[in-house]
Amino acid sequence: MISQFINAAKAKFSFLASVLVVLSAYTALPTQAASGQTTEELEQAVREDPHSFSAHFKLGRAMMDAGRFRKAEENFLACTLLNPKSNSGRFGMAEVYEHTGKFADAILVYKQILSRQPVSEIDQYRVQLAMERLSYYHSLGDANSPQYVFSNDFSDKHGWKKTAFPLRVAIWSDPELKELKEPFRQDVVRAFERWQIASGGKTTFKIVSDQRSADIVCKLVRVMRGSKHGAIGDKAGETALQWDDSSDDIVKWSRIEIFWDERYNLVKLEACVLHEVGHALGLNHSSNPHDIMFPLAHPPYAAILSERDKNSMKAIYAN
Ligand SMILES: [Zn+2]
Fold first, then answer.
1. Among 34, 42, 92, 133, which one is least packed by beta carbons within 10 Å?
2. Separation of CA 46 and ligand 1 centre (Å)
3. How far apart are CA 97 and CA 80, in angstroms?
4. Contact partners, residue 246, CB within 8 Å, separation at least 6
5. Mean pLDDT in the chain?
6. Which domains does the chain possess?
């Protein structure tokens, strides 16, 4: 699982008057193709051969994908004990810590990987990307504050003008993805509805068919397996925002692109849409993995707004 990640520089929301800003969600994808086996089958395989590195690793990945992080951690630890020379289990454990907000523990594991000799170039590179990610989360501030938009710090608060509502939203999907057209449309509508409720009813919208006159265009596009949209990872979605000429706190228009990869599923699509619509309405990233606005999409990809997500959206449109 080569990382998957966030280009921190792009997310510097603040200093970019009238300039296009691109915020993205990235997704963790295992390097190994999914085994196609259920977690029960993989557990059975471990019971039959408790000394098998590969059985533990596959089970660790499957547990990770299911969002069962403690089980994932156990199995990755077993990998490390069974084969101390391999870093695969260590990377798995660090990923668990990243997804559960235990960033200090993740850093310890990455340092441990670097301290082992010899360390391959690819492992060094993976650690470097991970460290950039962790420092980016750190820059996003306290993961336990009631909200991640601070109304007393206007540099961190951006949104649409009151007069822009209801926002005109156009939806488009790649004709090659026609089986996803309707699910995608529903996800977009539902995402706007949920954020509207979170905002206290402020962020009203209406669906329009003409993209040119729309304030926000949401697109579903296809990517080929293994393609990379970001400099350092697999990008799941991207939101571009343009500020009003008069103020870099006011959003003038926004464009969302969701990158569909055949390895994704509908649950992941829904979570990704909810995340990107959050950006389009003015939210930056959160450093708490329980928030939908955490930059790294993570298992089990539940499309749920946390209290912090709701509070933050409400804060943008509070006045
Ligand atoms: Zn994002």
1. 34
2. 37
3. 16
4. none
5. 84
6. 39-100+102-139 (1.25.40.10), 146-316 (3.40.390.10)
